[in-house]
C-alpha cells in the first residue's frame, strides 16, 4: 500500500506541474518502482516516467520519461496519456508533433482528464502544425471541461467561461450549436467509458 501511495503522489507531481514531496519518497524506492514498471504495472511506469521527467532519484531524461509514459498510456493510464501528449506538444523527449499530441490528449480527455480537455481546446483554437484551427472543436472541449468533475477552483472556472465567451464572438450561431451538440456526445462517451471501467 505504501508504494501505491508513493506512486500516486509522484505521478501527480508531473500532472499538476509541480514537484511534490512524494516524489522524493518515490526516488528513495526507485529499484522497487523500476522492478514493478518492468513487470508492466502501469502505475509504476507512470511514476518512473515522472521521476525521469523531473530527474528525481535518476538523471533527468525526457526520452526515458516518454518511454515509460507510453508504456502506461497504451494501458489506458489517463495521467500517462496526458503526460505523453504534453511531451509531444512541447517536443520533450520526442519530436514535436501536434497530431500525436492530440491523439494522446484525446485519449486522456475522453476519460475525463480536465487538463487534457483544456489543452485540446487551446490546440484547436490556435491551430498547430498538422492540426487545423477548429473553433467548433475548441468550444466543445471548453464546454466539456467546464462541466467536468475535476475541481478547478473558482479562478479556473471563470477563465473557462471567459474563453467560451471570447470564442463565441468568433463563431456563428450554427457553429455554437454544433459545438454544444459535439460536447454532449463527448460527455456521453466519457460516461460510457467510466461505466464500462472495471
Account of the protein in words:
It is a single chain. By secondary structure, this protein is mainly alpha-helical. The chain folds into 2 domains: 1-96, no CATH class; 98-198, no CATH class. Helix content is 74%, strand content 0%. Helix 7 runs antiparallel to helix 8. It is elongated and about 55 Å long. The chain starts with a helix and ends with a helix.
Write a concise keyword list for the protein shown above.
single chain; 198 residues; mainly alpha; disordered N terminus
User: Quick check: average pLDDT?
Assistant: 86
Number of strands: 0
Overall shape: it is elongated
Spatial extent as radius of gyration:
18 Å
**Distinct helical segment count:** 11
SSE-based structural type: mainly alpha
| Biggest beta-sheet profile | none
Task: List strands and helices in order, with pairings.
Layout: H1 2-15, H2 21-28, H3 30-38, H4 42-54, H5 62-73, H6 78-90, H7 98-109, H8 114-126, H9 135-147, H10 154-168, H11 173-196
Helix pairs in contact: 1-2, 1-4, 3-4, 4-5, 5-6, 6-7, 7-8, 8-9, 9-10, 9-11
Summarize the structure in short.
The protein has 198 residues and is mostly helical.
Amino acid at each position: 500500500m505504501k508504494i501505491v501511495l508513493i506512486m500516486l503522489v509522484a505521478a501527480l507531481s508531473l500532472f499538476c506541474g509541480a514537484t511534490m514531496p512524494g516524489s522524493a519518497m518515490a526516488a528513495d524506492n526507485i529499484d522497487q518502482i523500476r522492478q514493478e514498471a518492468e513487470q508492466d504495472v502501469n502505475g509504476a511506469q507512470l511514476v518512473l516516467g515522472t521521476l525521469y521527467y523531473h530527474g528525481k532519484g535518476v538523471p533527468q531524461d525526457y526520452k526515458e520519461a516518454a518511454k515509460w509514459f507510453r508504456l502506461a498510456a497504451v494501458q489506458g493510464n489517463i495521467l500517462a496519456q496526458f503526460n505523453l501528449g504534453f511531451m509531444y506538444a512541447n517536443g520533450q523527449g520526442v519530436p514535436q508533433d501536434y497530431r500525436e499530441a492530440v491523439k494522446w490528449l484525446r485519449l486522456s480527455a475522453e476519460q475525463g482528464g480536465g487538463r487534457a480537455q483544456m489543452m485540446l481546446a487551446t490546440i484547436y483554437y490556435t491551430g498547430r502544425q498538422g492540426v487545423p484551427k477548429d473553433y467548433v472543436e475548441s468550444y466543445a472541449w471548453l464546454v466539456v471541461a467546464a462541466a467536468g468533475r475535476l475541481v478547478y477552483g473558482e479562478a479556473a472556472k471563470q477563465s473557462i467561461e471567459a474563453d467560451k465567451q471570447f470564442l463565441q464572438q468568433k463563431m456563428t450561431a450554427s457553429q455554437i450549436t454544433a459545438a454544444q451538440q459535439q460536447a454532449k456526445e463527448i460527455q456521453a462517451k466519457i460516461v460510457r467509458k467510466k461505466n464500462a471501467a472495471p
